[in-house]
């Protein structure tokens, strides 16, 4: 009545008698969203994940980098007109994120920036900020102090993004408590640029990228914690890497009574016994070469298809199922303690059905991230990975918001609608500020974009004090007259123009205007 494995592990063919639910299968923590998120709007929920503290780090480091580059340019080019960097504010950076998120929702993340700002494109881009400002932020954006980075890189290969990543993990963990089933698996963020830890995984669609170990809620794929894999430390080989990763990810839920599903890279008998001491159970597949698997449970031509064998050893259950001839699937579980089998034609064990249901948490999360992604082409891996951070924060906000606001019917396009609403709410303060800028509102395309986003007529908006331009029936400024400087200086030449000086209100052409609103004489 026993199976004997190669390493002399004894597996009983019959389960131990059990009269009540095992202590290890009782969830001892509340599940669901944090109470502070229950009455929040979409943008407020997003800011709980992408917090102001994270934005402050980005804004401070970006301004520091941009100022250093501009000062260096002015110092090396004294004969040219000096350049000036206008510091980014927190409000403006949230508006920048809104453009990225909206582009991802519209699947425009692969479009060139010039295409996005055309008058025929989505109006939110032009309404939120100018194209040159967007390009400048993309150029100078940083996530750590570039002056101290070389020293930190000696100990941490992911130093340019580590602080931001740790803060994201803390916010993800604090805002949501998972259900009774968790999933641990890997995500390969697609990136073919140069890093010190690029991974090649041929089974993944992208094949090359940055690998992240994730623990997610198996029910709704909420990301709970991620670990960036940066390769081996020094020249020492990482032994039992799968067990180490599971312990570091699962320690957050020690003693909670939850179950963790994983594949054969992580699952082992020693790990199962160790997590039992943490009051956590596991369910996962096993590699066929493990020494504690009995020979009778290995694949064999003599085994009948759709048959199952079970073994029981110290609160650990082993199951071997034959899906077809000369094949065998071996699972290990500390959650199941019986020999339950489905009564259909294929007679699958209950362990396999439970595994198939709860193993897809990380894969589903990765699929959702790729569907509406902010990822844009770049040669800088910290910026590329920042796009992944924005996608994760958006997905987490989506799950939290709709957990607090139950939908009657869930539409297939609901997440795309959510991302568009999120981008509009993040951009709204910046759009309202631009609405009061007279120079911006004189651009016909920008004005139409703002009017489209706000969904109201802004033709009667009161602009700052000063002469107001007259508009024709198309919304453009009427022809003011002939440039008075051309008429005075070039033998009474009459050059028609729609522009006028903001000070004297006289017509002036582009050639004799130092800005779009002032003529050269009033400037003197």
Describe the structure.
This protein has 524 residues and is α+β, with helices and mostly antiparallel strands. The chain has three domains: 214 residues; 178 residues, no CATH class; 60 residues, no CATH class. The strands form four sheets. Strands 5, 6, 7, 8, 9, 10, 11, 12 and 13 form a nine-stranded mixed sheet that branches. The mean pLDDT is 87.
Major sheet characteristics: 9 strands, mixed
| Low-pLDDT residue intervals, each spanning 5 or more residues | none
Radius of gyration: 31 Å
Number of helices: 18
Question: How far apart are the first and last residues' alpha carbons, in Å?
Answer: 103 Å
Q: How large a portion of the residues is in β-strands, by DSSP E? A: 5-15%
The count of domains is 3
Strand segment count = 15
Structural class, by secondary structure, is: alpha+beta
Fraction in helix: 25-40%
Quick check: average pLDDT?
Answer: 87
What gross morphology would you assign?
Answer: elongated
């Amino acid at each position: 009545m026993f199976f004997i494995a190669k390493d002399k592990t004894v597996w009983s063919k019959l389960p131990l008698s059990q009269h009540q639910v095992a202590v290890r299968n009782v969830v001892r923590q509340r599940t669901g969203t944090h109470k502070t998120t229950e009455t929040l709007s979409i943008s407020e929920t997003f800011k709980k994940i992408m917090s102001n503290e994270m934005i402050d780090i980005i804004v401070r480091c970006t301004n520091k980098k941009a100022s250093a580059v501009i000062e260096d340019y002015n110092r090396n080019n004294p004969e040219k007109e000096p350049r000036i960097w206008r510091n980014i504010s927190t409000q403006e950076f949230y508006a920048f994120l809104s453009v990225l998120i909206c582009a991802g929702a519209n699947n425009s993340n692969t479009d060139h920036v010039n295409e996005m700002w055309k008058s025929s494109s989505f109006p939110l881009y032009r309404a939120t900020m100018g194209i040159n400002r967007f390009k400048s932020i993309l150029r100078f954006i940083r996530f750590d102090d570039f002056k101290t980075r070389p020293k930190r890189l000696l100990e941490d290969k992911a130093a340019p993004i580590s602080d931001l990543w740790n803060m994201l993990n803390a916010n993800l963990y604090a805002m949501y408590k998972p259900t009774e089933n968790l999933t641990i698996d890997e995500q390969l963020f697609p990136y073919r640029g140069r890093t010190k830890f690029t991974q090649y995984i041929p089974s993944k669609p992208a094949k090359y990228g940055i690998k992240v170990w994730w623990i997610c809620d198996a029910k709704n794929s909420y990301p709970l914690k991620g670990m960036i894999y940066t390769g081996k430390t020094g020249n020492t080989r990482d032994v039992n890497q799968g067990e180490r990763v599971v312990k570091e990810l699962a320690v957050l839920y020690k003693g909670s009574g939850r179950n963790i599903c994983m594949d054969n890279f992580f699952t082992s008998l020693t790990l199962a016994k160790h997590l039992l001491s943490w009051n956590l159970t596991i369910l996962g597949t096993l590699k066929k070469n493990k020494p504690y698997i009995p020979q009778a449970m290995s694949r064999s031509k003599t085994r009948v298809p759709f048959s199952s064998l079970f073994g029981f050893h110290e609160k650990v259950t082993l199951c071997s199922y034959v899906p077809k001839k000369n094949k065998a699937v071996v699972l290990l579980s500390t959650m199941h303690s019986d020999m339950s089998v489905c009564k259909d034609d294929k007679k699958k064990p209950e362990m396999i059905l439970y595994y198939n249901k709860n193993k897809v948490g990380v894969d589903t999360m990765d699929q959702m991230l790729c569907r509406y992604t902010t990822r844009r082409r770049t040669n800088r891996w910290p910026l590329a990975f920042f796009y992944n951070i924005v996608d994760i924060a958006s997905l987490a906000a989506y799950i939290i918001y709709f957990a607090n606001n139950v939908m009657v019917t869930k539409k297939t396009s609901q997440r795309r609608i959510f991302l568009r609403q999120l981008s509009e709410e993040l951009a709204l303060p910046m759009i309202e500020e631009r609405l009061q800028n007279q120079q911006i509102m004189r651009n016909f395309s920008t004005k139409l974009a703002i009017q489209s986003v706000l969904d109201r007529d802004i033709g009667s908006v009161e602009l700052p004090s000063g002469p107001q331009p007259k508009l024709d029936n198309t919304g453009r400024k009427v022809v003011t007259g002939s440039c008075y400087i051309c008429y005075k200086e070039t033998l009474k030449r009459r050059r028609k123009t729609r522009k006028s000086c903001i000070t004297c209100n006289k017509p002036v052409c582009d050639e004799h205007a130092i800005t779009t609103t002032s003529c050269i004489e009033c400037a003197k």
